[in-house]
């Protein structure tokens, strides 16, 4: 692992990781906003 610039599994994994992090942040923001 380490080559995120190239295609294949590395690039796909990096893309999925970024989407996952964004979803978690948005979900946490919505949850905290609903609670508070």
Automatic annotation (TrEMBL):
It is found in: Membrane. It comes from the Bacteria. One of its GO terms (cellular component) is membrane. Keywords: Membrane, Transmembrane, Transmembrane helix. It holds the Pfam family YjcZ_2. Signal peptide: none annotated. The chain crosses the membrane at residues 12-35. It is a single-pass membrane protein. Belongs to the SscA family. This is YjcZ family sporulation protein. It comes from Peribacillus glennii.
């Amino acid at each position: 692992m380490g080559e995120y610039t190239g295609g294949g599994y590395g690039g796909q994994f990096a893309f999925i990781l970024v989407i996952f992090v964004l979803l978690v942040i948005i979900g946490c923001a919505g949850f905290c906003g609903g609670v508070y």
